[in-house]
Specification:
Oligomer: single chain
Strand order of the largest sheet: 1-3-2
Helix content: 55-70%
Structural class: mainly alpha
Shape: globular
Order of helices and strands: HHHEEEHHHHHHHHH
Largest sheet: 3 strands, mixed
Radius of gyration: 19 Å
Length: 264
């Protein structure tokens, strides 16, 4: 009996250790698992240009330099926990009909041109990028995918089995619905990430407000779902910015317009 209890206690401690130090959640996967799964999913996305028409870095160097500059500012702020462990590669998907962005486990970030064209300022895009990066940094994606596909299937994929299911996992990331607590945490961490930068730290709130103003709050992208309500999220993000005393004011509107014009 004592031996069984010892092994149970050891297993629980190992599982809990996989989370961030300031996070009480339990994630059964290691950081290496997140990185491996993210790499597999990224490879699957890159191999399917019909479904995911990713813009070429060679053909659009200006656009990639610009959006990677935003990512670099966020990472340089010092609040992304897995800054040096995850890939944090950015890709632009050429589809103006999709108002979305997502980030795989391990930090592969995808942004649709539909979202880029909809936004009006650089700090709004920075806020959305921060939100998506938070889902990977806080390891929400691994949690949610495990709930959807089951532990055994996720383990099989990491072991090189059931590779056909990678197609489904890649597709699900586009419309992945996170829990209320995960969405709230990603909103909060978006502010945390942007606060040390020269961006307005409540950039994501501007996006929510634009959706509300245009009457689209009932048909928002899944990553901006109504759990919690968009109006509440605007207030929460704004409150976080005020509580943290964030002072960034830069919007860089002219640069953002040039960025949008550089896209197809």
């Amino acid at each position: 009996m004592k031996t069984k209890l010892f092994f149970l206690a050891t297993a629980i401690s190992l599982i809990t250790a996989c989370g961030n130090p300031d996070d009480n959640s339990i994630n059964i996967f290691s950081i290496e698992d997140d990185k491996e799964l993210g790499l597999k999913v990224n490879t699957e996305i890159q191999s399917n240009p019909q479904e995911y028409p990713v813009l070429s870095r060679t053909q659009y160097p200006q656009a990639y330099s610009y959006i990677e500059g935003i990512r670099n500012k966020i990472l340089a702020g010092g609040n992304v926990y897995y800054k040096d462990e995850f890939a944090w590669e950015v890709y632009i998907i050429n589809d103006d009909n999709v108002l979305n962005a997502f980030c795989t486990p391990g930090g592969y970030i995808y942004v649709y041109t539909g979202l880029i064209h909809f936004l009006e300022s650089e700090h709004e895009l920075a806020g959305v990028l921060g939100h998506e990066m938070a889902h990977a940094d806080r390891r929400h994606s691994t949690d949610q995918l495990t709930q959807i596909y089951g532990l055994q299937l996720m383990l099989d994929i990491l072991l090189g089995q059931n590779q056909n299911d990678l197609t489904n996992i890649a597709a699900s990331l586009v419309t992945l619905s996170f829990s209320r607590s995960h969405e709230t945490e990603a909103d909060t961490y978006s502010v945390n990430y942007l606060c040390p930068t020269d961006y307005r730290a409540d950039g994501a709130a501007n996006f929510f407000q634009m959706l509300i103003d245009e009457g689209q709050s009932g048909n928002t992208p899944t990553f901006l779902s109504t759990h919690p309500d968009p109006g509440n999220r605007v207030q929460n993000i704004t409150d976080q910015r005020n509580e943290q005393g964030c002072t960034g004011t830069g919007t860089f509107d002219a640069a953002y317009t040039n960025f949008k014009n550089s896209l197809p």
